[in-house]
Structures are given as structure tokens and as C-alpha cells.
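Changelog excerpt

This revision adds worked examples to the README so contributors can see how folded entries look when concatenated. The first example is reproduced verbatim below.
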Amino acid sequence: MAINEAAVRLEGVNKAFGSFVALKSIDLTIEPGELVCFLGPSGCGKTTLLRIIAGLEQQTSGRIFQNGSDVSHAQPAARDYGIVFQSYALFPNLTIAQNVGYGLVNRRKGRIELTARVNELLTLVGLPDSGAKYPSQMSGGQQQRVALARALATAPSLLLLDEPLSALDAKVRERLRGEIRQLQRRLRVTTIMVTHDQEEALSMADRVVVMNDGVIEQVGTASEVYERAATPFVADFLGKVNVLKATALGGGQYRVGNVDLTLPVNGNAAGDAVRIYLRPEDRHVEGDLASLPNRLRGRITRIDYLGTFCLVELRSEALGQPLLISYSLNQLHDLHVREGGEVEIALRVDRVRVFDDLSSQRASA
């Protein structure tokens, strides 16, 4: 691989299934050693894109490069990758050692060399004494580790993970995603993972590729896509968010109901219909609020208890729209927050996003 050559580069990749267009003009560069997550709702095209990279689907048009080589029409066996599927796809009639070493047999490795490599991989994934067992004797999490070891057996330059943790329960999933991330960093293997789990993508990826309706909406680090969403879809898809209908007044002033908010955004002309995207945690709820701008007072109409924090629905007559605000569990108790009670908050707007209200534009067209 040439110096500074991308591990994977996609140029104008399109995919159509008859009249249905699954992918539209996908351009993406993935650097060596990166872990990149394709994140999006069901049907957004993320798995189709992974399968095209693997050669398991043929793109309608566009080019795919791996380590500088054009693999646009190469067969899967001619592409240098290992893959782990959601279903594990282990051979039930083979032992764990035979499953892991399956890809090495065709490479005519000697028995001693093959056994050493299998033992090395099983130790790497935390299953050093499991070689003689069969898949049916392993838990779901252990089977996924075996599938990962098998994918790494040939030391590929690219690892593809197709929703590898979605079939596991929450505790196992949380533990395994940490283990996979540590292993990926240790081996420095370029990795592409498909997931619909936001927490998984944000906690594991160097960069997140947020997809919707066959296009890439945004590519960025976890903090970039969460805190600085590039489109309304990204702002709405990632986490909880308040979407407030507003009118721009100019000069960074926006009117929501009967409330004027001062926002660090000044790209809208007076009279523009906009939507303000504000996350529940972007607020001040304690301390000296009197000195802060964008204060609101309202009545609590609902509390959703979520363990370490709670989501509180706040209704303010002046605002005219309900607002979700998050409180830590300690704040909930210390500030005596309860349903039916009144609270004062100040909106923290440094991460606010403002987008044109397209529905208003369509209605007036």
C-alpha cells in the first residue's frame, strides 16, 4: 500500500434494485486503522453499502478502491477482508478450533503453523481453552468472539462487521463492544461496522457515517455528529431533541410562541420560518439563573424515570410548545422536581442548531 493511500475509497457509488434506488452517489474515504460505523434506520442503505464493499453485491455504477487497487468488479475472494455477520454463521459440525482455522486450510498452512495461529487467535479473543468445543456449547457472546477470531485468521487489512452485536442482550453487547474496540486498536485493522444502535456507533467509532434514504447525511466524529448536526435528519435521529417552530427576527433573535430567544446563530433573515433543535441536556436548572438569558418558567406535566437521569416534560404558556428537559437523579431530588410543580430553567444554546422550516416552505409554495 502506498504511503497516505486510503484503506477504502468509494467514488460515486450507486445501487438500484429495479426502480428502487438504494444508494445515491456515495463518496467516502476511510483511512488505514480507522473504525468507521455506518449508522442509520432500517432501509437506509448501510448494509447494502457494506455488501458492495465486500463484493457480495454489485454496484450499479461507481468505483471501489481498497489500498489503492480498483476492486470495483473483483470477486469477494479477491478482496482482502474478513467479515463477521449478525448470525455468526459458524459451522455447527466443526469444533471452535476448526471454525477459526477454516480460512487457513485453503491456504495450505502446515498443521503446526495452523494450530499455533488458531491458539493465538482464541487467546486474543479471550477463549484460550475452547478449541475442542462446538458452537452449540458456547453462549451467544462467545460465538461472536469465535466469529471475530475466524474473520481475523488470515490477517486481513479490512474487517467488516454487519450488525455483529444486535442479537445479544444489553449487558453482553456493552461488554463486547468495548472488547472489539480494544482489539481493533491493538491490531490497528481498518474496520467498517454497520449498526442501527446509536450508542454503539457513538462509543466505538473514530468516525460515524450517518445514512438516510440511500445518501450520506453527515460524516464526523461522535461529538461532531451529535453536537453539530449538519442536517435536520441527523439532529433528530441521534438522541433526544426538542424541535421548536420559530420565526427569525434577525440579529440572532428568534421568536418561539411569545418568547424571544437569543441564539449564537445569525444566518436567517427576519421573517424566516425555522426550526430550532435543542437537546434536553442543553439547559441550566440550578444556580443563579436570574443573570442568564433565555429563561423560561413552566409546569412539569410528565417525568420519565430512566435511572441515572430523568426526562421531564415542561409546558410553558409563553413558549406554546412542550419542552423536554433532562435532570440527573440527584438534581431531581435536590431541586424537589415533581409532576405538577413549577420550575425555572435557562436554555443553554451553545450547541443549538437552526434549520429552515421546509414544511412551511412547501405549504406556501
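The second example, added in the same revision:
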Amino acid sequence: MNAVNSIFILVLAFLAVFVEASFGTFRRVLGVQVDLLPGLMIYAALSSGTLTVSFLSVLGGLWFDSLSANRLGVSILPLFLAGFVVQRIRHLILREETYAQLVLGFSASGLAPLLTLVILYSCGAEPMIGWGFVWQWFVMTVIGGLLVPLYFSLFGKVYRTLGYERVIETSFRQDREIERGRQ
């Protein structure tokens, strides 16, 4: 199911970038363009391999940058670093716990824009930073962090619908009585 998992993650990344670019509800109401990819990267890092994390960072970053004001390729490194770090320590993380998902989601959604900002400055761009940036960063961090448990729930429902659970049969029956002793 690993290949199916990777395909679902990449399709959802494409749809997330499309939704970010097409529907400006958050942009009009809150004044913030929410980034959906860092939370999805956390899910990918906890549930799939390095290849999926790499594909998601490259393709998701390029899709996002092509539809935003960023320079092409700026979002790739922050996404990859978030996914790679989480994947390297995923054996220490309680993957099924909502608290761990929220903390990782808040961290990735908060650090990815800051790393993107550092990369933009190092490229010679001069993005506007002020109190509006602080508000945007805060809202992006909160909403991006809250989306991670939703990703786990969504993918869990998809896999329960499309997949099957293996039944492990043993030769031992629970209702069998074992007679011991001499006869």
C-alpha cells in the first residue's frame, strides 16, 4: 500500500495547492493565505518513506511557487527540511496521538514560512515585514497545525474504505479444549 499512499499524498498536495490558489475565502476574511503543504508534509513524513517526502517537497514546492509570488523553488527546501527531520525521528514520535500531530503541525507550519523568508532574503528579494506579517504567520501556524489531525483522519477513512485488513489465522482455535494428563 506504500505506492498507493504516495499517490494519494501527491494528489492531495496538488489539490491543496489548487484550493489555495483558487478559493480566496481565508484571504478575504482573515487577510492570510493559508499554506496547506507543511501539515501534509508532516503526515507524509510519519506515514511514508524518504522518496515520498522528496517528491512531495519538490512537486508541492514547485506547484505552490508557480501559483504564488515566491520565486520558483523557494518553498522546496523548507518543506523538505520539515519532512526529513520528522522522518528521521519518527520512531520516537507517538504517531497516533492527536497531541503529537498538533505539535508537529504547529512546528512545521510555523517554521516553513520563516525558512522561506530567510531564503528569499538570501536571494536578494525584499519582502515586506511588519505587524501584518506577524498576524499572517500566527494564523498560518495555527490553521496549518490544526489541519494535521484532519489529514490523519482523512487518510484513515480513505484507507479503511479502499483497503482491507489482513486476517491472521492460526491453527489454534479459541474454543478448543485441551485435555492434559494420563488417560
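Reviewer comment on example two: The helical segments are 2-22, 25-30, 37-47, 50-66, 76-88, 98-122, 131-162. The radius of gyration is 21 Å.
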